[in-house]
Design brief:
With about 400 residues, this protein is mostly beta strands. Helix content is about 10%, strand content about 40%. Strands 1-22-21-20-19 form a five-stranded mixed beta sheet, with no helix packed on it. It has a four-stranded antiparallel beta sheet with strand order 2-25-24-23, with no helix packed on it. A hairpin with a 5-residue loop joins strand 7 and strand 8. The N terminus is likely disordered.
């Protein structure tokens, strides 16, 4: 054997070994392109949700605030008419005196949109309960002043709210009270709107249904953790396959909280009778959170999710039946995030079959938070995207 052949064979074997050691498949061979949806040094942006409208344009909604625990976030919209190549400037869609976060979006059969918002009222006590050093004292003091203002304390809109748009999100009516959902819901063939919901006061997921966006909303299922003493289920996403099967996928959070715990697998439950009965939630082979489900044009189901242990980034996987999710099918969209402040990806399918996945994370060059908390001058997380092929 010649020296040249020996070298080539050694390189080939090394490549196989390296590939076997990687966690999931790289998206690099899927013509992936990373891009920026919105970035700002001063703004903290997170928790995006998006949908592709009938005219082909894409709308993405997310929270814009000053910090993760800031008291007065607002929901903004950006829009793309060229498959995510360029985006409009953020436009405020919903803003009250208190903190808006979560902005799930549901596309109804008639083309109208539902925007699901969760509004949180912070307090001196809630900020006092944060771990020491989470933020500089001067920042927390300013937040406390805000939450003790009369307009903040008396705002009547805490909790879940739903807005309705018949013109692709240009104008909105509402809000009306309704269940929260971080990514949105689905509409069944019988016209019912179905959403999977959670709140931090519960250790399980509830599935709600309504004939009209204004309600009433009825609980049609409770999806409980198989190990409620150590695992709570939350931040669900729901989708329906062409077969009629409805699938709910959920985030697992450990007690006590540890988002790098080995048990943080995605859980799945399904219904084959139009939501009348549901399987008990079971863990998949996919580690990460929270999930976003998308029914693909070819009949399969796509899940995208964040990965908050090294290497930090965003991942995805595909299932033919919505139940079987294999680690070997996992795709690494990117693994270059500098810290765990990331995730909440949401995907849409473009007209040519490619996938556009939006998420929040810091740029790869950013550093971890300093011990004394986030600095006002640091580049905070942005809304980023990856366009890729299955």
């Amino acid at each position: 054997m010649s020296i040249r052949v020996q070298i080539c064979l050694s390189v080939f074997i090394f490549s196989l070994v390296a590939a076997g050691c990687r966690s999931g498949n790289s998206v690099g061979d899927r013509q992936a392109v990373n891009s920026v949806v919105y970035e700002s040094v001063s703004d903290y942006t997170a928790w995006p949700a998006g949908v592709r409208l009938r005219d082909g344009s894409i709308v993405v909604y997310f929270t814009l605030t000053d910090e993760h625990m800031g008291p007065d976030g607002r929901i903004v919209e950006v829009r793309s008419t060229d498959d995510g190549v360029s985006w409009s400037e953020p436009r405020t869609v919903y803003d009250t005196p208190i903190d808006e976060r979560e902005s799930g979006i549901t596309l109804l059969a008639d083309g109208s949109l539902l925007l699901h918002v969760w509004s949180t009222r912070h307090s001196r006590a809630s900020y006092g309960a944060m771990a020491d050093g989470s933020y500089p004292a001067r920042i927390v003091d300013g937040w406390v002043e805000t939450v003790e203002e009369e307009a903040y304390r008396s705002a009547p809109t805490a909790g879940g709210q739903i807005l309705h748009s018949v013109d692709g999100g240009e104008t909105w009516e509402g809000p009306a009270p309704g269940p929260d959902t971080i990514h949105g819901g689905i509409q069944l063939a019988d016209g019912r709107i179905l959403v999977a919901s959670y709140r931090t006061t519960r250790d399980y997921v509830e599935v709600y249904a309504a004939q009209d966006w204004r309600g009433p909303w009825d609980v049609v299922a409770e999806l409980h953790s198989p190990d409620p003493d150590s695992i709570r289920l939350g931040e669900p996403s729901v989708a329906q396959l062409s077969s009629g099967r409805i699938v709910v996928m959920m985030r697992a959070t450990t007690k006590p909280y540890n988002d790098s715990d080995d048990r943080c697998y995605l859980y799945v439950s399904y219904s084959d009778d139009n939501g009348l009965s549901w399987s008990s939630p079971v863990a998949t082979e996919l580690w990460g959170f929270p999930p976003h489900l998308l029914a693909l044009d070819d009949g399969r189901l796509l899940v995208s999710y964040g990965h908050r242990r090294a290497p930090f980034g965003q991942r995805a996987a595909v299932s033919a039946d919505g139940i079987t999710w294999r680690k070997r099918d996992e795709v690494v969209l990117r693994d270059d995030a500098p810290n765990v402040d990331l995730g909440y990806p949401a995907s849409v399918q473009l007209s040519d079959g490619r996938i556009l996945t939006v998420y929040y994370q810091s740029h790869p060059s950013d550093t971890l938070r300093p011990p004394e908390g986030p600095l006002p001058s640091r580049h905070k997380p942005d809304i980023l995207a990856t366009t890729w092929s299955l």
